[in-house]
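Lab notebook: predicted structure, single chain.

Context: the supervisor wants predicted structures on file for every construct in the current expression panel, including those that have not yet been purified. This is the next one on the list. No modifications to the sequence; it matches the entry in the shared construct table.
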Amino acid sequence: MSNSITQDIQYKQTVVEYSYRHGVTKAAIKFKMYRKTIYRWRTKYDGTAKSLKDKSRRPHSHPNQHTEAEIKMIKDYKAKNKETGLVVLWIKLERKGYTRSITRKEFCDLIYRLTATEFNPIADSRKGQQDAIKQVIAERQLEDKISEVSYSDCDDEKIKFLSGAGIIYGMDDGTFAPDNDITREQAAAILYRTADFLGNKTIVEPNGTTFYDENLISDWARESVSIMNSMKIMEGVSDTEFAPKGNYTVEQAVATMVRLYNCY
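Prediction complete. Output recorded below exactly as produced.
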């Protein structure tokens, strides 16, 4: 990777130096590239190859980032509970007032762990989970389906497995949007598909409960929301409201994982 980056920078420098000697138009023709690109490189160039290195596009901050106090709380708890799993850690943090939306990838990490644990109750370590999932893939013959999974913004093996298993789906534009906060209706749909994949015998018919904001629930999530509510795995934010487009929180996600686990 390092050699590739170095070669790319050297190539840019060659193009820029050529453009200074012979002009941008001739450089564009010789190297088969747009004049605008060469002008952009020339603007950055200060005579050193380092100036042509691409800068990181990673944002310096985002609206849902942890505060310094939250980071300290997490690090302190993790330092004192080194062997504690993610779910237990979140529960401990919740009791101390930790509240945060959960991303699509973080939610999938929990589902992956739950699935591994159901097939092998002692699969608590990372290797144990991987071995359990390998067993699931072999038993369900999911190799081909997993190999066909492709998202333009995500190459995570856990997400590939869950997609191949039909538990999760990506977005309409071909992305998975792993860092987006998961919505309540998305979470309900994933929970229902997980229960179905694991062969949960306690899946029940919808109990007929309606929410006044039911018209806001997407068609693809309507059945999942109703069944998860009937099973008391995931209920509304109140007796009359589900808030399907609202963000799901870490503590809510952990609570529903525990409820789903206890159904088996």
